[in-house]
Each structure stands twice: as C-alpha cells, then as structure tokens.
Amino acid sequence: MIAVLKRNAGQEDKEKVIRVIKEENFDVHPIQGVEKTIIGVLGNQNNRTKLKEKLMTMSCVEKVVLILDPYKLTSWNFKQEKTVIDLGDDVKIGGSELTIMAGPCSVESREQLLKTAEIVKTGGAKILRGGAFKPRTSPYSFQGLGEEGLKILSEAREKTGLKIITELMDIEHIDVVCQYTDIIQIGARNMQNYSLLKEIGKLNKPVMLKRGMAATIKEWLLAAEYIMNEGNHNVILCERGVRTFGEETRNTMDLSSIPLVQQLSHLPVIADPSHGTGRWELVTPVARAAAAVGADGIMVEVHPEPENALSDGPQSLKPEKYYSMMVEIAAISKTLYSFESSEKKIAYV
Which of 56, 252, 256, 268 is surrounded by the most beta carbons within 10 Å? Predict the structure, then answer.
C-alpha cells in the first residue's frame, strides 16, 4: 500500500507516519514528490487492514491506497512521476531526450577500447558500454579482461567524458565493478539471480536490468522489485529480445514490451537491438523502431573492426554505420518530442 501525505505535511509528520508503519513491522519506502510525499508500505498482507485504519486516523495523511499489482515499487501506483536516472554532467536516462549507450561487447585491449570510445563520443552517445567480465555460452570463449578491462574503461571515461556501463556477474565482483562504473548492468542470464539482485539493491548506484531470455513482463518487473525492495530505486529496464522459435535472428525483439512496460511502470526502458537481432544489418532498423515506440534509450554494440572482435562481431556496427544510425534515430526522436510538445500545447488551449 501507499500512504499519501497532505501538502502541508512537514518532516515531523513524515517521521511520525514512518514510526507507526515500522511499529506494525512493515518496511518503509518514502518517495518525495514535487508536491506531496508518498510513503510505500511493504510487508505482511494479513496486517495491512489494521495499519490502514491507523494511518487514516492521522491528520497528516490524505489517503491510503492498496496496491493490488504483484509488483509494488515499480508500478505507477507507487510513484506518480517518471523515474529519471541522473548520472551528472547533464546525462539523464528517462528524461526528455533519447539516451544512447554504445561501445564494444567486450573490452579487448586498451587500443581497441580507446579508439571505440572516441567513435562513440563523435557519434553523439553519452554512455560507453563495454564488458570486463563476460558471461559466455561456451566456457572456451573469451571471458573478458576482468579488472584490467575496468581500468581501461575508466581511462576512456577520463579521456572522453563518457559515462560507463559494464556488466556485473557475481556478488564477489561488486566492490571492484562499483569502483569503476557509473551504471551496473545485470545481464539476461542473471535477471533472476535473486541473491545478486538483493545485494545490488543495497548499493547507491544505478542499475540496468536486462530482460531474461524467456522472461515474462511480470517476471521482469518482479526482478526489478527485488532491487528496489532493498532500497535502490535507480533502476533502468532493458529489452534485449526473447528466445522464440525463430533461427534467423539471435533473439526476437519484443518492441511491444517497451510501451507496455511504460504503461505499467515509472522506470525508464531502453532497447538493445544488437542482442535483439544478432545481425548488424538489422540493428539500425530496429533502433529506429525502438525510438519510434518511445524507448527512453538505445544500447548498441560498436566496434572499429567487427570482423576481428573477440565477441559478438556479427552484431556490432562499424563506425560509419553507427554514425548513420545516430542521425536517423535523432531525427525520429526529435520529431516525436516535438509532436508530444505540440499535443501538450493543444491540450492546454
């Protein structure tokens, strides 16, 4: 449930409400809105009626709303304002602009990563992606450079000003990954690694949660719930395609999930057409489509020499293809944003 405080409620009122909730052994998740304070309440469903009655007797409480959705913290019922992840330096995810993350699947060498970072920056992306720890289907495939790769990513950030996103695979790597990255990526294989999700939920670091290879929307949102239930509400969702009967593409890109999840949740949703298709020639068309359906961001793989890439070469864009894609999706995003602004103006006339 959520308790909505009145507009004139102060800090003392907020603390009093939180104290009452905790006395009934419920967890508290306060959210400070623009106009009102909302306090999320999670815990034993059997006692919620008693708690609701207590809260409604308090003069500072405007209303108490029961949330029937299985996912509580991720839903619009819990938070009426869209979540915007602010990384600093005017880089935001979930705001009014389409955010682009680009870079190689894996950090292979200092030369390769720094060269790619310059390409990514020149094209207009704000976030550099690159794997230092790589989960691979085959144990004989390249597994990443580990901390050495993280250090190279950090150097690229210093040289270009790009923010960094890299994948975290294991609880044992949390400290070292957090030392270098701006966003923690949880890959599809770990979407339901609940022990890992709980641990990153204790961090004050943005997390991008990829949809599992066969996960439903409900399972995906509940995985995000694990992170948020531990206190970390800076969660980004990433649609990267699901496994179906098709063999012509790596996965089947579920573009419908993007506007659907945006209807269900206040969290930003980005698209990964590289993993969604597995074929470089399909990346740009699907990126255009993702921008058109209203994705908050797009993640693509870029490599200066895809034919020599140690992982995911067939789905990586060469620099010139990446530059072309950026021009095309920028045009779509600009048109959509202008159209939305016009609609808002018309609505107020």
Answer: 268
